[in-house]
Write a structure and sequence with these properties.
Strand content: 5-15%
Order of helices and strands: EHEHEEHEHEEHEHHHHH
Number of domains: 2
CATH superfamily of the largest domain: NAD(P)-binding Rossmann-like Domain
Number of helices: 10
CATH topology of the largest domain: Rossmann fold
CATH class of the largest domain: Alpha Beta
CATH architecture of the largest domain: 3-Layer(aba) Sandwich
Strand order of the largest sheet: 3-2-1-4-5
Largest sheet: 5 strands, parallel
Amino acid sequence: MELHFGKVAIIGVGLLGASLGMAIRNKKIADEVMGIGRNMSTLEKALQKGAIDSFSTELFPSVCNADFIILCTPVQSAITILQSIAPNISPEKTIITDVCSTKVEICKKAQSLWQKDSPFIGSHPLAGSEKFGPEHAKIDFYENTICLLEKGINTRAEVKKTVWNFWTLLGTKVIEVDMVEHDFFMAYTSHLPHIIASALAQVTGETKAPNYFIGGGFRDTTRIAESRPEIWKDIILTNQKNILSGIEDIQKKLDEFKLSLQKNDANQMMDFFKHGSESRQRLFNK
């Protein structure tokens, strides 16, 4: 599979963007990888890490002659950037994608900007970490992961094929998904777990529990609570309806368990844990 760009512009060179840059340069997919961002220190770290060849703090003219633009900022910023660059690029020559964790709002924005033959298709590589910043970037960060690619109903066929091949070259398994289904399921498999992890970390922190009381279960459950707040704020606000429904579902389960505990109903408590175990096994096809 051959794929090559003259210039790739990565907007946002944190963990995800810098890891992309390292993989692109390692696989020689582009002649130049440019990092674009607002924080000079972050850009310099990405350059030192070998993630980019050059950088700029200005969108223009940096993106104007890029063949491939990858938006690696929080989703609300990505939507704003997409709208800003639309009049300044050639949709017949440029390809644009993103790595955002919600898809409906950014994909609808792209559909409004380009009613047909869109240069944009939404991507969501399921690779992440509670760590952030280019200093934690890895060449193989995306290898053996899944990348969800939205259907791109008004996207140029060449764009879809190229972005699909791009993620495949980086070692991901690409799966095409509907953007609405994407946001619904991600609310339960990703967004709610972050909210619950943060809530658990907060209420436990308020007890001032010494760390010798903290075991592997708590560490595993709350690890993602250390993720960047600004990223998760954007994710939550762009998937509000699904997350609110999920919170109601969680509250219902907790209320049911609380009632069984108040009644000392051992059988109901056993059923609660049994159903949780069985549900997890089904989700992982065990």
